[in-house]
Specification:
0% strand
Length: 125
């Protein structure tokens, strides 16, 4: 490939700092997103129980059945389409994995410190 150089302390520190910040923000944002979804669900259920909202469950069930049929059709097309089968794309998959490995190998210190920092950010958020 090219000349391999030792990672500097600055690269490792920047990777760790970026990982910590990313992990911290990921955990905080996901908590608020989950809380918002739960509150929204409870509000709709409460309004439905109180009679403010009338849900047409027959229409909901019909739409779910239509979606299930559409998804089943899409999945069966994907499975029968030879171009999308994993075995047909094995060469492309191996090439992608090799490129990912080479990129990680060249930036192993930064990637590793980012991953460790991300885990710490999630842990201490």
């Amino acid at each position: 490939m090219g000349k391999e150089t030792k990672p500097t302390q600055q690269e490792i520190a920047m990777g760790a700092l970026a990982g910590i910040c990313s992990g911290y923000l990921f955990k905080k944002v996901s908590k608020y997103a989950a809380a918002t979804a739960v509150v929204g669900y409870l509000a709709v259920q409460g309004a439905s129980q109180a009679g403010y909202i009338k849900i047409n469950w027959k229409k909901v069930n019909d739409q779910i059945e239509d979606l299930k049929e559409d998804l089943t059709d899409e999945i069966s097309e994907i499975i029968t389409d030879e171009d999308t089968l994993l075995l047909e794309n094995e060469g492309r998959l191996k090439a992608t994995a090799r490129r990912a490995y080479e990129a990680f190998k060249q930036n192993a210190a930064t990637s590793g410190s980012f991953t460790a920092g991300f885990a710490l950010g999630i842990l201490f958020a």
